[in-house]
C-alpha cells in the first residue's frame, strides 16, 4: 500500500486513526502491529511471512546474544543475526544481478549459463534490513538493551509509516517511544500538516513532473537537443527529490500523529555548496547508517589519507549498490564517491574561494549529472544522454506547450532553493518545525484540509503515481 | 496580589481554551477523514451528484486467489477512483475551471459549446453538418435501405394493430435545436455525401401513407418570429415550446379515427418558477450555475372537453423529448393512461413516476394491446437508430397468437379487481411476483378454455 493512494487515504488512515486513538494507550502498539501487517500484506502478500519470519529470527538471535557472557558466542550470534538480514537482502535483491553478471563472465569462456528463476524483490527490503542491522549492532555494542517483547520489536521493524521507504530509524532513536510516548494536540496537528505537505509534494509536484520525464526519456536520447536534455534532467532532479522527500514527510507526519519522532531525512539538499554537504542533507538517515555502520568500522578518518579516500569511495560504491542491483547504481555511487574524494583533496577550497552561490550551482549540476546515471539504467543510453547535455546543441530546442509541467517545474525549483534565502529558511522553519500560535494552527489546518481534498482530486485525475524509492 | 491571581487565572483559562480548540481540530480531522471513508463506502450523501455519470467498475470481490494475485487490489484501486468521496465536487471543480478559463471547454461527452454561450447536443450538431450519418452507416444507400426497412415494418405493424385490434400507430419527428437555431452552432466542415435519417423517414412515411407529423419545418418557420426562444441556449430539449407540438400531436391523433380527444387551449406563456440548472447546464456538471441564463418558460394550458370527449390510453415509444409532456401538459386531463418507453430501455408506467421498469422485464405485448394509440417519436438524429428494436420486437410477438392470447388474458384479469386481489394473495403465498402469477394464471385459463 502506498500513502498516496485511495486505499490508504480513504480506508486505511481513517480506520487506523479511529482504532489507534479509541484504544487504551497500553494496546496502541498492538493496533500499530495489526495495521502494519495489513499495510504490508495488502501490497505484498507473498512476502509478509518472510518479513515476519526474519524479524522473529533476529529478535531471538539478539536476545540470545545479549544473554550469553562468552564474547565469541556473542560475536557469533551478532554475525548470525546480520547474516540472516543481509543474506536475505543479498538473495532477494542481488541474486538476479549476480547470476546475470556471472553468466556474462563465464559466457566469455564459452561456459553454459547458470539457470535460476527470477527472484522477486520484497518491497522495502533495503529499509527494514538496515533497521534490523542497527538494532543488532547497537545492542551488540551495548548502546541499548534488547527489547523485552517480541511484539514491540516487530512494531519497531514493521511500523507502517517508515516500513517501505524509510526514514531508516535507528532503534536507539525511538526505543523510549515504543515503550511509552506522549500525545498532544499540537503534535497531532503538526503531524497532520506534515503528512499533507508530503502528500502534496508527491501528488502535485513529483507525479506531474514524473509523467513528463518518462515521456521525454522514452524518446531517442541520441537526437535530443541540449535544452530538452537539461530540462529533462532538471525535471527528474525535482521529481526524485519531491517524491522521496514527500514520502519522508508523510512518514514523519504520521509518526508524529502516533506520538513518534522519526529523524529528518532531507534538509534542502539542493542548497548544498559541495557534494559532501549534499550527502549531509540528502537521505540523511541512509548517510548516518553508512557513516555509523560502515565508514567508521572501516577506519573512517582515523587512518591514512589514502585509506580514508578508499573508505569514502567504497562507502559510496556500496551506497550506490544499495539503491539497486544494477551497474548504473554502482557507477552512480562511484561517481559521488569520486567527487567526495576530490573535495577532500582540495576541491572544497576552490568552492570556498568562489563563494556560496557558484558552489551551489556547481554542486547542483554535479548532482543532476549523477541523477542521469541513476535514472537511465542502460549505461550506454545514460552516457549518450550526458553527452547531449554537454553538446550545447540548442538548434532544435523549443519549449513544448505543456504549461502544467513547466509551471510545476518552476514551483518545484522555487521550493527547492527558497531556503537559500533568509526569509525562505524562516518560512520553512515556521511551517515545518516551530510551534504555532492558535491562529497559525487554524490557518495551517484549513490549508491542510483543502490540500488533502485537492490531492485526492489530483490523485484520481491521473493514474501515474509510482514511488521511486520503493524499489530500493 | 488579587489582581495577579486573576491575571494568572485568565492566562490559564486562555491557554486551556487554546488547547481545547486544538484538541477539537484533531477530533474534526479524524471525523473528516472518517466522513470521507463513510461516504466512499456507503455514499450517504448525494450532494452535488453528477448528471449522466457513467461508472464502469463493480464493487471488488475479495477472494484468497484474487488477493494473492493482486487482482483484488487492482479492482479496489479502480473502484475507488470512480467512487471516492469527493469525486463529484472534484469533477465539478475541474469542469468549472475548464469551462471558465478554457473557452467553455467541457468534458461532457455529448455537449458542444456553440457561439454566444449556447450549448448543443453533440450528435445533433454532427447531424446538422452531415457528420452523424457516417457514424452509423457506411453509405447513403445503406441508410436508405435501413429507413425503407424500418418504415415497411412500421406499416406492417400498423396494419395488424389497426385492423385486428383497433389501435392506431403513428409517429412524429421532433424538432432538433441545431436545425432550429443553427446561427449559434460551432463552425464545422459540412459533409454532403450522405442524407439525413429524419428527412428520409419523413419522406418514406409520406410516400407509404404512414401517419406522421414532422415538427421540424414548422418550428423552423416560427423560430424567427417567435417572441421567445423556442430552445433555450442552455437546454437541448424543446421545453415550453413543446406545448404546440403536443397540441398538434393530439389533434393529429384525433384526426386519425375521430376518437374525441379533449382539446388543449394555450392561454399564455409565463416565466417558469424553476430556478435550478437547465438541462445542458446540469450536464456540464459545473460547481456554479452559468451566469445570465435565459430563463425557462412554462405554458398556461386549459383542457376543453365535453360529454363526447374520450381520454385515450397512449403508449409513447421514443426519446427524452417525452419529459416535456410529463412537466408541461395536463396529462391526466388529456389521457386516461399513458406509458412511456424511454429509449426502448426504461419504462415509465402511468402517472406514477415511481413505476419504473426495464424494458426487458415487462410484457411489452400487454402494453401494446392495452392502449388506443402508440406514438413512435424521436428528435432528428435519434432516427439513425430507427425505433431501437421496438418495431422488430412488436412484430415478432404480435404474430404469435399464443403470446397475444396470454397478453390479452392478463390484461383482462388485471382489469378485474377481485380477480387481481386473488392473484396478488396467491403470488404472496407462492413467493412469485404478481406479474409472474398473473402470467401463470392466464396460461392456465387459456389451456383450460382450449379443453
What can you tell me about this protein's structure?
- The complex is a heterodimer of chains A (472) and B (451).
- With 472 residues, chain A is mainly alpha-helical.
- Helices cover 73% and strands 0% of the residues of chain A.
- In chain A, helix 3 runs parallel beside helix 5 (125-140), helix 9 packs antiparallel against helix 10 and helix 10 (226-258) packs across helix 16.
- In chain A, 42% of the residues are buried.
- Chain B folds into two domains: 101-388, no CATH class; 414-450, no CATH class.
- Helix content of chain B is 51%, strand content 13%.
- Chain B contains 19 helices and eleven strands.
- Chain B has a seven-stranded mixed sheet, with helices on both faces. In chain B, strands 1-2 form a two-stranded antiparallel sheet.
- The longest helix of chain B is centred in the first third of the chain and has 41 residues, at 2-42.
- Chain B is globular.
- Chain B starts with a helix and ends with a helix.
- The mean pLDDT of chain B is 88.
- The interface between A and B is medium-sized, with 32 and 32 residues.
Topology:
The complex is a heterodimer of chains A (472) and B (451).
Chain A: H1 6-22, H2 28-43, H3 48-67, H4 71-108, H5 125-140, H6 150-158, H7 160-163, H8 171-179, H9 185-217, H10 226-258, H11 275-281, H12 284-298, H13 305-323, H14 327-354, H15 356-375, H16 379-389, H17 403-417, H18 422-432, H19 438-461
Helix pairs in contact in A: 1-2, 2-6, 3-4, 3-5, 3-6, 4-5, 9-10, 9-17, 9-19, 10-15, 10-16, 10-17, 12-13, 13-14, 14-15, 15-16
Chain B: H1 2-42, H2 64-69, H3 71-83, H4 87-101, E1 111-113, E2 119-121, H5 122-128, H6 133-136, H7 140-165, E3 168-174, H8 177-180, H9 197-208, E4 212-214, H10 215-223, H11 242-257, E5 263-271, H12 279-284, E6 297-304, E7 313-318, H13 323-328, H14 331-334, E8 337-342, E9 346-349, E10 356-358, H15 364-369, E11 373-379, H16 390-398, H17 401-415, H18 417-430, H19 434-450
Parallel strand pairs in B: 3-4, 3-11, 7-8, 7-11
Antiparallel strand pairs in B: 1-2, 5-6, 8-9, 9-10
Helix pairs in contact in B: 7-9, 7-16, 17-19, 18-19
Amino acid at each position: 500500500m502506498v500513502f498516496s493512494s485511495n486505499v490508504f487515504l480513504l480506508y486505511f488512515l481513517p480506520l487506523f486513526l479511529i482504532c489507534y486513538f479509541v484504544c487504551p494507550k497500553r494496546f496502541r502498539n498492538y493496533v500499530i502491529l495489526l495495521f502494519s501487517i495489513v499495510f504490508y500484506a495488502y501490497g505484498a502478500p507473498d512476502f509478509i511471512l518472510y518479513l515476519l519470519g526474519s524479524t522473529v529470527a533476529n529478535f531471538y538471535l539478539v536476545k540470545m546474544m545479549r544473554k550469553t557472557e562468552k564474547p565469541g558466542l556473542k560475536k557469533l550470534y551478532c554475525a548470525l543475526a546480520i547474516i540472516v538480514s543481509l543474506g536475505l537482502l543479498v538473495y532477494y535483491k542481488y541474486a538476479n544481478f549476480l547470476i546475470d553478471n556471472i553468466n556474462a563472465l563465464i559466457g566469455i569462456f564459452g561456459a553454459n549459463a547458470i539457470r535460476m528463476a527470477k527472484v522477486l524483490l520484497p518491497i522495502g527490503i533495503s529499509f527494514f534490513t538496515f533497521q534490523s542491522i542497527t538494532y543488532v549492532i547497537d545492542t551488540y555494542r551495548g548502546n541499548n538493551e534488547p527489547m523485552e517483547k517480541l511484539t514491540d520489536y516487530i512494531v519497531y521493524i514493521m511500523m507502517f509509516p517508515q516500513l517501505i521507504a524509510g526514514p531508516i530509524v535507528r532503534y536507539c532513536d525511538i526505543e523510549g517511544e515504543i515503550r511509552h510516548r506522549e500525545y498532544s494536540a499540537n503534535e497531532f496537528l503538526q503531524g497532520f500538516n506534515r503528512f499533507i505537505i508530503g502528500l502534496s509534494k508527491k501528488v502535485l509536484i513529483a507525479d506531474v513532473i514524473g509523467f513528463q520525464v518518462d515521456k521525454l526519456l522514452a524518446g531517442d536520447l541520441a537526437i535530443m537537443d541540449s535544452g530538452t536534455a537539461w530540462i529533462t534532467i532538471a525535471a527528474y532532479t525535482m521529481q526524485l527529490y519531491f517524491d522521496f522527500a514527500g514520502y519522508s514527510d508523510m512518514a514523519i507526519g504520521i509518526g508524529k500523529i502516533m506520538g513518534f519522532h522519526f529523524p529528518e531525512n532531507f534538509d534542502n539538499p539542493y542548497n548544498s555548496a559541495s557534494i559532501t554537504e549534499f550527502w549531509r542533507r540528502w537521505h540523511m538517515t541512509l548517510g548516518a547508517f553508512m557513516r555509523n555502520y560502515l565508514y567508521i568500522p572501516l577506519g573512517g578518518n582515523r587512518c591514512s589519507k589514502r585509506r580514508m579516500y578508499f573508505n569514502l569511495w567504497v562507502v559510496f560504491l556500496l551506497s550506490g549498490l544499495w539503491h539497486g542491483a544494477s551497474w548504473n547504481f554502482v557507477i552512480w555511487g562511484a561517481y559521488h564517491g569520486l567527487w567526495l574524494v576530490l573535495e577532500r583533496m582540495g576541491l572544497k577550497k576552490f568552492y570556498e574561494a568562489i563563494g556560496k552561490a557558484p558552489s551551489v550551482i556547481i554542486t547542483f549540476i554535479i548532482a543532476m549529472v549523477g541523477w542521469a546515471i541513476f535514472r537511465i539504467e542502460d549505461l550506454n543510453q545514460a552516457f549518450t544522454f550526458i553527452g547531449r547535455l554537454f553538446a550545447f546543441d540548442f538548434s532544435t530546442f523549443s519549449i513544448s506547450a505543456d504549461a502544467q509541467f513547466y509551471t510545476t517545474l518552476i514551483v518545484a525549483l522555487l521550493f527547492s532553493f527558497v531556503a537559500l534565502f533568509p526569509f525562505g529558511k524562516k518560512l520553512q522553519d515556521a511551517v515545518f518545525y516551530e510551534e504555532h500560535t492558535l491562529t497559525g494552527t487554524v490557518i495551517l489546518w484549513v490549508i491542510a484540509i483543502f490540500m488533502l481534498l485537492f490531492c485526492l482530486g489530483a490523485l484520481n485525475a491521473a493514474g501515474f503515481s509510482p514511488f521511486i524509492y520503493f524499489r530500493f | 496580589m488579587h489582581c495577579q491571581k486573576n491575571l494568572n487565572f485568565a492566562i490559564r483559562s486562555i491557554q486551556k481554551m487554546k488547547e481545547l480548540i486544538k484538541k477539537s481540530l484533531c477530533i474534526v480531522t479524524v471525523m473528516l477523514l472518517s466522513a470521507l471513508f463513510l461516504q466512499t463506502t456507503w455514499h450517504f450523501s448525494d450532494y452535488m451528484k453528477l448528471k449522466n455519470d457513467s461508472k464502469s467498475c463493480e464493487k471488488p470481490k475479495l477472494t484468497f486467489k484474487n488477493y494473492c494475485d493482486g487482482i483484488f487490489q487492482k479492482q479496489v484501486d479502480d473502484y475507488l477512483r470512480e467512487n471516492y468521496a469527493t469525486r463529484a465536487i472534484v469533477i465539478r471543480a475541474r469542469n468549472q475551471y475548464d469551462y471558465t478559463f478554457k473557452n467553455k471547454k467541457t468534458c461532457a461527452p455529448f455537449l458542444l459549446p456553440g457561439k454566444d454561450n449556447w450549448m448543443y447536443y453533440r450528435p445533433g450538431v454532427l447531424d446538422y453538418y452531415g457528420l452523424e450519418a457516417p457514424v452509423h452507416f457506411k453509405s447513403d444507400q445503406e441508410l436508405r435501405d435501413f429507413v425503407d426497412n424500418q418504415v415497411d415494418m412500421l406499416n406492417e405493424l400498423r396494419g395488424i394493430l389497426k385492423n385486428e385490434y383497433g389501435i392506431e400507430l403513428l409517429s412524429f419527428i421532433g424538432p432538433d435545436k441545431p436545425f432550429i437555431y443553427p446561427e449559434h452552432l460551432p463552425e464545422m466542415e459540412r459533409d454532403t455525401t450522405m442524407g439525413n435519417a429524419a428527412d428520409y423517414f419523413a419522406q418514406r412515411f409520406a410516400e407509404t401513407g404512414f401517419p406522421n407529423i414532422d415538427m421540424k419545418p414548422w418550428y423552423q418557420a416560427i423560430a424567427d418570429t417567435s417572441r421567445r426562444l423556442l430552445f433555450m441556449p442552455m437546454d437541448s430539449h424543446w421545453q415550453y415550446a413543446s406545448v404546440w407540438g403536443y397540441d398538434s400531436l393530439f389533434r393529429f391523433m384525433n384526426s386519425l379515427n375521430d376518437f374525441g380527444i379533449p382539446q388543449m387551449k394555450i392561454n399564455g406563456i409565463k416565466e417558469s418558477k424553476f430556478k435550478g440548472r437547465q438541462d445542458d447546464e446540469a450536464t456540464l456538471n459545473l460547481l456554479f450555475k452559468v451566469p445570465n441564463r435565459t430563463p425557462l418558460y412554462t405554458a398556461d394550458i386549459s383542457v376543453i372537453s365535453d360529454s363526447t370527449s374520450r381520454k385515450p390510453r397512449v403508449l409513447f415509444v421514443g426519446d427524452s423529448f417525452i419529459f416535456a409532456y410529463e412537466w408541461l401538459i395536463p396529462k391526466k386531463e388529456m389521457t386516461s393512461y399513458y406509458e412511456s418507453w424511454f429509449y426502448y430501455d426504461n419504462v415509465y408506467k402511468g402517472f406514477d413516476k415511481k413505476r419504473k421498469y426495464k424494458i426487458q422485464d415487462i410484457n411489452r405485448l400487454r402494453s401494446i394491446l392495452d392502449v388506443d394509440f402508440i406514438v413512435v417519436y424521436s428528435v432528428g438524429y435519434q432516427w439513425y437508430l430507427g425505433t431501437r428494436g421496438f418495431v422488430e420486437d412488436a412484430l415478432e410477438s404480435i404474430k404469435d397468437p399464443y403470446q397475444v392470447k396470454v397478453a390479452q388474458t392478463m390484461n383482462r384479469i388485471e382489469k378485474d379487481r377481485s380477480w387481481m386481489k386473488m392473484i396478488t394473495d396467491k403470488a404472496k403465498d407462492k413467493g412469485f411476483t404478481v406479474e409472474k402469477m398473473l402470467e401463470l394464471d392466464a396460461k392456465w385459463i387459456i389451456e383450460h378454455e382450449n379443453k
